Amino acid sequence: MKLDPNTETPAGSGSGEPDKHLRVLVMTAVAAERDAVLRGLRGSGRFDVLLAGVGPAMAAARTARALASAEYGLVVSAGIGGGFIGRAEVGSLVVANEIVAADLGAQTPEGFCSLDELGFGSSRIQVDPSLTIRVTEALQAAGQPVYAGPVLTVSTVTGTAARALELDVRVPGATAEGMEGFGVAAAALDSGVPILEIRAISNAVGPRDRTAWRIQEALDALEAASTVLLEVL
Ligand SMILES: O=C(O)c1cccc(C(=O)CC[C@H]2O[C@@H](n3cnc4c(=O)[nH]cnc43)[C@H](O)[C@@H]2O)c1
Questions:
Q1: How many domains does the chain have?
Q2: Is 6 within a domain?
Q3: Residue 205 CA: which ligand 1 atom is closest?
Q4: Which residues line ligand 1 (CB under 6 A)?
Q5: How open is the CA angle 224-200-198, to the nearest 5 degrees?
């Protein structure tokens, strides 16, 4: 498959409409997310929903294995995630317009240096803008609170206000945070398959407060979003 030389994403038709003859691979970190997605997909045979494991490394390995075993027209990284305050509240959905490995780089006395700045590749993978818009609009039309923006992948869940601010400065407009998206996206990019990431917000990105997690609320939002994906993908 051809890659767009500017974005390094698979070159598409520009409509954001995946080839409906091809299967869709959905990768979730854990079983509770997988089951929510499966409930939303209502038995559709066009989607395979597989476990990625937690964190970008396992997610990349498992996605690469799945992509080597069958032909897919789209890969979706889906799960619960943290929402940046003021951009995505608990219970809402975030559709990635880019997937950013936010802690991949080097710490220097002058501050964080990304992989791009170090000249070792890129820590950002773009999502086809028309796909992001198409999915965001469909979710909105279904009455779900939804935002489009950068979704960060981190290996360490943010647990302080200072770290949240640091990430917000590093990635302007950062909207959500998860732990698998960049791994799933790297495998998809490597196989020339388009990528999408959707996070249902279970907690705010900031000071650690386990009592404030709303995991069931986020899983319900993920299930409802998956029903919309059935129609739009
Ligand atoms: O122990 C904590 O303070 C803590 C806070 C939030 C999430 C966790 C997890 O271990 C969940 C990891 C799992 O869920 C996704 N997730 C959910 N919320 C976030 C978040 O705020 N930042 C990053 N990842 C999050 C993640 O994709 C994993 O699959 C622990």
A1: 1
A2: no
A3: 21
A4: 29, 54, 79-82, 154, 157-159, 177-180, 202-203, 205, 208, 210
A5: 90
Q: What is the ipTM of this complex?
A: 0.94
For residue 206, which phi and psi values (nearest 5 degrees)? Answer: 165, -150
- 8 lies in a domain? no
Report DSSP letters for 118-129, one per residue: HTS--SEEEPPH
Query: Which residue has the least CA distance to atom 3 on ligand 1?
Result: 208
pLDDT of residue 143: 96
Q: pTM for the full model?
A: 0.93
CATH number, domain of 33, equals: 3.40.50.1580
Answer yes or no: are the C-beta atoms of 183 and 57 closer than 8 Å. yes
C-alpha 149 – ligand 1 centre gap (Å): 19
For residue 49, what are the domain limits?
A: 23-232
Note whether residue 13 is domain-resident: no
